[in-house]
Write a structure and sequence with these properties.
Blueprint (H helix, E strand, L loop, with lengths): L4 H21 L19 E19 L9 E19 L8 E11 L2 E7 L3 E3 L5 E3 L1 E21 L7 E25 L4 E2 L9 E3 L4 E8 L6 E11 L1 E2 L4 E12 L8 E4 L2 E10 L1
Antiparallel strand pairs: 1-2, 1-15, 1-16, 2-3, 3-7, 4-7, 5-6, 5-9, 7-8, 8-11, 8-12, 10-11, 12-14, 13-14, 14-16
Length: 278
């Protein structure tokens, strides 16, 4: 199907005109208002649900084996999570022409991550009882979830236009902070790991072709994460009582995840709010 640029341009212009008109009418007292027929009070408070995706960047530098200084490190884990919760917005100034507000959110966030490091060789036992070199890989899986409280300042830089800029702190209270390190035997297919080459606390699965090096809570992990969030949003006003607000923001991790390793979590967040008049 051929792309119709004129149709797209007309649609965008229509959204801009509609949004500008809605902004102009928001909270305006009707001309015919009288003591016997009062106009509704301007709407200053909006509340509604918020949902979105977290595109994760874990800035990591974690050794795969803590007792081997020559071992490779897990670096720059990535993942895809989500968030959901409630948004509260309070408009400043004259409601009909307000260009700034405070936005408060209470959210549940998931910040998962994963990274794989491929090693060239490692000694393994083959069926005839001898040892041979192999191809192996280290896999780090991260489970990191939080209850989040955000306070954002929003400004609309263009009068009567829905584009907004938001910035403010995000406080994460960590609910889950686990990691799993798997050491997988990729090839040859007829080989197994030699158990006595590993420490006693290592477990095995997949017919001794996978060694679980670590599976538990992240060592010395903090219970709180502080982030600085900044982004843009576009307010599509459906009358004077409802916003639909798609948004894009970057949530930079100020505090480290743990004091033991170099590790920060900074998601790119893409989502949408629906804010109803209260």
């Amino acid at each position: 199907m051929k792309f119709n640029f004129n149709y797209l341009l007309t649609t965008i212009l229509g959204i801009i005109v509609f949004t500008s008109s809605a902004f102009a009418q928001r909270g305006v007292v009707r001309d015919y208002a009288s003591p016997l027929q009062p106009s509704p009070m301007p709407h200053r408070i909006y509340i509604g649900p918020a949902v979105g995706l977290n595109i994760l960047g874990h800035s990591t530098d974690i050794p795969t084996f803590r007792n081997d200084v020559l071992c490779p490190h897990f670096k720059n884990a990535s993942g895809m999570g989500f968030y959901g919760g409630l948004t509260f917005e309070y408009l400043f100034g004259d409601v009909a022409t307000s260009s700034s507000s405070i936005i408060v959110r209470a959210l549940y966030n998931t910040y998962p991550g994963s990274v794989t490091v491929v090693n060239e060789t490692y000694p393994v036992r083959v069926p005839n009882g001898t040892t041979d070199n192999s191809t192996v890989e280290n896999v780090l899986d991260i489970e990191y979830n939080a209850a989040t409280f955000e306070v954002m300042y929003k400004i609309n830089p263009i009068p009567h236009f829905g584009l907004g800029i938001v910035v403010g702190p995000a406080f994460d209270f960590i609910l889950t902070k686990n990691r799993t390190h798997r050491f997988n035997l990729v090839s040859p297919n007829n080989a197994q790991f030699i158990r006595d080459r590993f420490e006693n606390d290592v477990s095995f699965e997949n017919n001794d072709r996978t060694a679980i090096i670590y599976d538990g809570e992240i060592e010395d992990a903090s219970g709180i994460r502080l982030g600085l969030k900044a982004g843009v949003q576009y307010e599509i006003l459906l009358g004077s009582r409802l916003y639909v607000v798609p948004a894009l923001a970057y949530n930079f991790g100020i505090t480290p995840l743990t004091s033991r390793y170099t590790w920060r979590v900074s998601p790119l967040q893409v989502g949408i709010d629906a804010r109803f008049v209260f």
